[in-house]
Amino acid sequence: MLRLPGHFGARRAGTSSHYLIRVASVTTNNTRGILAFDSRRFISSSPRHVQQQAAVSVRVEEQYEPNVQQPQKDPGGEPYWQKVGIWKDVPEDKFLNYQWQIKNTVQGESKLLQFLEGVLPEKLPAPRDTNSPLSQIKSRGDFLSEVKEAIRIAPMAIRITPHTLSVADWNNPFEDPIRRQFVPLRASLLPDHPKLTLDSLGEEHDSPVKGLVHRYPDKALFLATSVCNVYCRFCTRSYAIGADTETVTKNSLKPTRRRWDEMFDYIASTPALSDIVISGGDAYYLTPDQLYDIGTRLLAIPHIRRFRFATKGLAVCPSRVLDPTDSWTSALIAVSNAGRKIGKMVAVHTHFNHPSEITWVSRAASQKLFAAGVVVRNQSVLLRGVNDDLDTMKALIRGLADMAITPYYVYQGDMVAGVEDLRTSLRTILELESQIRGSIAGFMTPQFVVDLPGGGGKRLAASYQSYDSKTGVSRFVAPAVKGGETVYEYHDPEWSLPKAEGHGESDNASMAE
């Protein structure tokens, strides 16, 4: 019997969190086990067939201690945030404090405009493309007016962490890849393609209970919350994530116990499920208690063999992992360790899109998770003007690999409304994969995929059945997801289509995965 007393989070200071592993059978080739809680509130909400399983029992009490390691700088690591005038006197320990990051997050139109007023030069450099609509923006005042107009028609609210704002180049705001991801400009916005929607992947249609998307036979998406540390302009879940905007009323997903219980009951009563993604919103925005509760409840379900927490936290607020006053990382590591002890895989999926997002703080946070045995994978989105050129994508992939983060996916931009200026053609992702594959070890080469509109799931971009670059229409099938009868179409953005007849060609290929 292994006992590890557990503490984490101020609310539970001095208390223990217990769970019980009941091993149904153990052989040299097959070990089956479930995890159930001593805590009465958790057992009472579990389906009866989970509660009634019994066998040899082993009590395990995991220990959660606050982070005690201090971040280790890269050689030459610098206080990069001090380039921003309002934070020029902020010391390292304060900037790395998670509560300071939350308190100083720029949220909403007025706060963003106030921030930009302080960081933009009065006279702006001309954009690289002199024919760009952005060339009409000459001054700081012009820029602020453009931002204000764009926010009023954007589907996503404004929320940006100090870390993210600190890695942007505000002296060159037109070309900066960080600005493009989070701060819209009216002059750069393009009309939506007729096929764009707010829920392009059909998640609400594939939700048997609110907030649980069951599309793949053995995998479900657990949307724990609709809040993130930052709000990306290109969010695939713009129908639900963040505050309401002037153009979109969100179908928000509150992190309530009642809603979670309904999702857990569905998972526990659906034995075909073995793989869960905990997302939102962002798992980083969960409290340590909430993250621990979700993780251990999933470990308690016999047929769940693996799950991952989806978070952009490492890219937009990496200091939380290092913060000695915050227990989120301790809870994550404990859940990961508990899963490993019973043969279940726990991982983190994060979301870096550009090498500029990687700082010495990011590397220190990644190293801490790596040293603790936490598996971290990255999922990037291919974005026009951000990472759609070969040099940038190669630098991103190598940068991730060098800090022990597996480059897992590069997604074609989803067909979501309001961000047509950021989408690329399918041709772009195909060319990037062709040139990148073979330039780095295979296990560090990401899969270049399209998440099919309408709920067809992820397919390799190169597995299209047909692609007409003149019309911009590519067609895919997904036999393993919803059978092979449905044909799913991805449409290139209209700006990328040839402007004259005869400039396109049709490619036809059989499926290859």
Give structural notes.
The chain has helices spanning 40-45, 48-51, 92-95, 98-103, 109-119, 140-151, 162-166, 177-182, 257-268, 288-299, 313-316, 319-322, 328-341, 360-371, 390-402, 426-436, 479-482; strands at residues 19-26, 31-37, 56-60, 106-107, 159-160, 212-216, 219-223, 275-279, 306-310, 345-350, 375-381, 406-411, 447-452, 457-460, 466-468, 473-477, 487-491, 506-508. The chain has 513 residues and is an alpha/beta fold. The protein folds into 3 domains: 10-60, no CATH class; 80-188, no CATH class; 212-460, Aldolase class I (TIM Barrel, Alpha-Beta Barrel). A 9-stranded mixed sheet has the order 6-7-8-9-10-11-12-13-14. A 4-stranded antiparallel sheet has the order 17-16-15-18, with no helix packed on it. Strands 2-1-3 form a 3-stranded antiparallel sheet. α10 (288-299) links the parallel β8 and β9. α10 packs parallel to α13. The two termini are 46 Å apart. Residues 1-60 and 501-513 have low confidence and may be disordered.
Task: Write a brief structural summary.
The protein is of the alpha/beta class. 27% of the residues lie in helices and 17% in strands. The radius of gyration is 23 Å and the shape is globular.
